[in-house]
């Protein structure tokens, strides 16, 4: 349940302020999180709406590609 609550906030935070090496635990947790099938599916389903995200030009290509 905590992963479900954390994933949207971490997703958008990673776009605005990417996790650097001084946050190894957060960075590793986020990388594990986005590899989960449920999170991959959610990102894929949200992809058509990324154009409306105010900072879409900062979004890493790995999230934009299907």
From TrEMBL:
Domain (Glutathione S-transferase C-terminal) ranges: 2-37
InterPro entries, sorted: Glutathione-S-Trfase_C_sf (IPR036282), GST_C (IPR004046)
SUPFAM superfamilies according to UniProt: GST C-terminal domain-like
Short name of one Pfam family: GST_C
Designated name of the protein: Glutathione S-transferase C-terminal domain-containing protein
Species name: Agrobacterium rosae
């Amino acid at each position: 349940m905590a992963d479900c609550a954390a994933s949207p906030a971490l997703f958008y935070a990673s776009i605005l302020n990417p996790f650097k090496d001084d946050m190894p635990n957060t960075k590793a947790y986020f990388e594990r999180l986005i590899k989960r099938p449920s999170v991959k599916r959610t990102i894929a389903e949200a992809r058509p709406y990324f154009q409306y995200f105010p900072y879409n030009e900062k979004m890493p290509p790995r999230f934009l590609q299907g």
